[in-house]
Amino acid sequence: MGIQGLSKLIADVAPAAIKENEIKNYFGRKVAIDASMSLYQFLIAVRSEGAQLTTADGETTSHLMGTFYRTIRMVENGIKPVYVFDGKPPTMKSGELEKRGEKRAEAEAALEKAKELGNQDEVDKQSRRLVKVGKSHVEDCKELLKFMGIPFVSAPCEAEAQCAELVKSGKVYAVGTEDMDALTFGTKVLLRHLTFSEARKMPIKEFYYDQVLEGFNMTQDQFIDLCILLGCDYCDKIKGVGPKNAIKLVQDHKSIEEIIKHLDGKKFSPPENWLFSEARRLFKEPEVTPASEIDLKWEKPDEEGLVKYMCEQKGFAEDRIRNGAKKLLKARQGSTQGRLDGFFKVLPSTPKAGTNKRKSEETKVGSGKKTKTPTGKGFRR
Amino acid sequence: MFEARLVQGNLLKKVLESLKDLLTEASWDCADTGIQLQAMDNSHVSLVSVQLRADGFDKFRCDRQLSMGMNLTSMSKILRCAANDDIITIKAQDQADNVTFVFESPNQEKVADYEMKLMNLDQEHLGIPETDYAAVIKLPAAEFQRIIKDLSQFGESVVISCTKEGVKFSAAGDIGVGNIKLAQTASVDKEEEAVTIEMQEPVTLTFACRYLNMFTKATCLAPQVTLSMSPEVPLVVEYKIGDMGHVRYYLAPKIEDEDN
């Protein structure tokens, strides 16, 4: 999933692009949530004694539980979430999906074996690997979000690409996902750990696209090529080229075409029928609904509808659902706290320019001593 | 090299007290004109700007402009080691990794020095435009502190509205509503206790109590506080530091939500 080793590479090469922040500092921000990613998270993580939560009939409800409570957590912190669901996978992804299918088969076999051996830890681990988000899970969530008054978007294709489109157009501030390829699609701000449980006390990690490019010293196109070399969902990579090598190759040769020309044929060979240019096109011009056609509205929660759906159909406790609805309603009241960056402009980060300005404002020199002006930028005025 | 000696060391202690709830770390920018600090809190809702002019110090030397990034919690710990009547001297080399604080007792019999590591901080500076505010309210600092503290019990935010008649602070919440009205003082016997209002047009703005409460930590600095407001721009809360500078807090207002 995503881009292999990209977050680690950013942390090593462009540490300035990563910031940590608390969830409460995102008040008033609109955030696009990669729904498929969060559904997987919930199905895997929201469990009781290792098993998924179910209704009396054995229908899974972990995803509803997760979506309900973690959405409320975001809303209570003043965040306005919009969920983006996956459409059909691009055909280029079939190879990757095949691999995932194989892994599932492996996990299934391992699960059988673990069950035979009675190894409970292993059973838990393997059953988590077998989790798959199905159509019914997605439909359930959409239904729930409707009652909660939270908007969602059904992407024609990849959800990450649609999220990136929403950020680029300014409809939302950031994308909440664990999947780093949202960055490859050009997401300006990526937030990790946003939908994690509160109990984990995990700070939110922000990745800034522009700072990543600056730190890597790359253009957007070069960054996409780098991601392909690191390993993406759409095509193979050059065997034996690791992250350190990949970044150097892109910095030296600027494009995959040039890299292939200069590749040390003895050590590395590009994959046969390498479809890198198709993968590149998928990242650059993904199939998305234009943001201008999307209208995001955060509505009042429908408490009765929620109770009817969640309690009568899915067997949740009524008082909890009502409580949650109250929280959603309360968060809508009152006004939103503004931010100073909305009023004051950030000055370019040359500290000398700032001090200089002050100097011109005040001519009084307290020490009465002639002080040396620093050379360089100090003489700008 | 940088050296600044302040006989009224107490002032610096108070400045730190007024910062440390809002900021954990910040850069002190030193130039031959004095020392400045500008920083936003983590959520970017408020900003503090401190100015200490060189002429307010008994001795001030700054050969090269330098920016000293400090952990304010640590700095506050060190300054707490100084007695209220101590003379404080701050010293640093031009390319220093450390800063030294020297505390001398008034009779020169006790001298303590503390060294602290500097930090490399990459902080954003904001350009604050010169603004003519629609309403400028001056009131006793302790009065302001009391008002904010009292109203904080009612709700998360306080509405400040300034009209010809005076200034009104209100808060509403689960337990009820609170209103405090202050009229301009008619006769000024003591300047420090006066409430004065200079107003071009009426203004009403809403602010978060949490931040206002943190601002009032600076009450010990000055007898009077100045509130400057204009429609839809941040509030300025200013406390003078003796006659050598000021602490100014900027706070973004709360705004009505348009897409609910």
UniProtKB/TrEMBL annotation, chain A:
Region (Disordered): 340-381
UniProt keywords, alphabetically: DNA damage, DNA repair, DNA replication, Endonuclease, Exonuclease, Hydrolase, Magnesium, Metal-binding, Mitochondrion, Nuclease, Nucleus, Phosphoprotein
SUPFAM superfamilies referenced in this protein's UniProt entry, alphabetically: 5' to 3' exonuclease, C-terminal subdomain, PIN domain-like
Cofactor notes: Binds 2 magnesium ions per subunit. They probably participate in the reaction catalyzed by the enzyme. May bind an additional third magnesium ion after substrate binding.
InterPro entries to which the protein is assigned, alphabetical: 5-3_exonuclease_C_sf, Flap_endonuc, HhH2, PIN-like_dom_sf, XPG-I_dom, XPG/Rad2, XPG_CS, XPG_DNA_repair_N
EC numbers on record: 3.1.-.-
GO BP, one annotated term: base-excision repair
Any one GO CC term of the record: mitochondrion
UniProt-listed Gene3D superfamilies: 5' to 3' exonuclease, C-terminal subdomain (1.10.150.20), 5'-nuclease (3.40.50.1010)
Subcellular location: Mitochondrion; Nucleus, Nucleolus; Nucleus, Nucleoplasm
Function statement: Structure-specific nuclease with 5'-flap endonuclease and 5'-3' exonuclease activities involved in DNA replication and repair. During DNA replication, cleaves the 5'-overhanging flap structure that is generated by displacement synthesis when DNA polymerase encounters the 5'-end of a downstream Okazaki fragment. It enters the flap from the 5'-end and then tracks to cleave the flap base, leaving a nick for ligation. Also involved in the long patch base excision repair (LP-BER) pathway, by cleaving within the apurinic/apyrimidinic (AP) site-terminated flap.
Similarity field: Belongs to the XPG/RAD2 endonuclease family. FEN1 subfamily.
Name the UniProt record assigns to this protein: Flap endonuclease 1
Species name: Tigriopus californicus (Marine copepod)
Highest classification ranks of the organism: Eukaryota, Metazoa, Ecdysozoa, Arthropoda, Crustacea
Gene: Fen1
Automatic annotation (TrEMBL), chain B:
InterPro entries membership: DNA_clamp_sf, Pr_cel_nuc_antig, Pr_cel_nuc_antig_C, Pr_cel_nuc_antig_CS, Pr_cel_nuc_antig_N
GO biological process: leading strand elongation; mismatch repair; regulation of DNA replication; response to hydrogen peroxide; response to methyl methanesulfonate; translesion synthesis
Location in the cell: Nucleus
Gene3D superfamilies, per the entry: 3.70.10.10
Protein name listed in UniProt: DNA sliding clamp PCNA
Any GO molecular function: DNA polymerase processivity factor activity
Coiled-coil region: none
Role of this protein: This protein is an auxiliary protein of DNA polymerase delta and is involved in the control of eukaryotic DNA replication by increasing the polymerase's processivity during elongation of the leading strand.
Similarity field: Belongs to the PCNA family.
Organism: Tigriopus californicus (Marine copepod)
